[in-house]
Amino acid sequence: MFGGMVHAMKGRVEVLLALVVVLVGACGAWGQKVQSPTMQDRVREQHSLVINIVRAINAAEASYKEKNGSYATWETFIGSGDFSSTGTKWAPESLPTVRHAMYSSGPEIVPGWKLRLNVAKNGQSYTVVLEDANDPKCHFAISSDERGVIRQGKSVDCQ
Questions:
Q1: In 3-state terms, what secondary structure has residue 15?
Q2: How far is CA 76 from the centre of its chain?
């Protein structure tokens, strides 16, 4: 009589132990999926943000030139409210971090990023550079011009 109960309990204990092993394994796998972002992930996110800000500037420049016959300075965009402390209309809703960023007159138009927007005297061309203000070693930057090609780069001495 007791032999059958011991055998049944032994089977239940084995099932319970197997279940615990599975749950511990699942918790371990779950913990791995919820890891906090690495420094490389954060840098990639920052670079993506700045690339999309340059896209927004390019869109604003194209629209301004179409309406006015020349490209605009950053001061013009800030003064008109195209870029302001509440955001910009030149970024799609799908990019809320760009659309609702707090833009300023500079030199850091968003925290940590210095803008150089140079418009030719005749207003028919421009160059835009956003440089990482927190990267004194490599001077990482995103740049573009009236052609709309966006480039990224760093100093040649950076390793």
A1: helix
A2: 25
Domain limits of the chain? 40-153
Task: List Cβ neighbours of 42 (8 Å cut-off, separation of 6 or more).
Answer: none
The first and second tokens of residue 127, run together, are 């160059």
Task: Judge whether 98 and 112 are in contact, CB under 8 Å.
Answer: no
What gap in Å lies between CA 63 and CA 59, rounded to an integer?
6
Model pTM score: 0.75
pLDDT single digits (tens) 103-142: 999 889 999 999 999 999 999 999 999 999 999 999 999 9
Q: Which two tokens stand for residue 55?
A: 């896209």
Distance (Å, rounded) from C-alpha 77 to C-alpha 57?
Answer: 9
Q: What are the start-end ranges of the H helices in 34-71?
A: 39-68
Burial of 112-136, coded b for 16+ CB within 10 Å and e otherwise, reads ebebebebeeeeeebebbbbbeebe
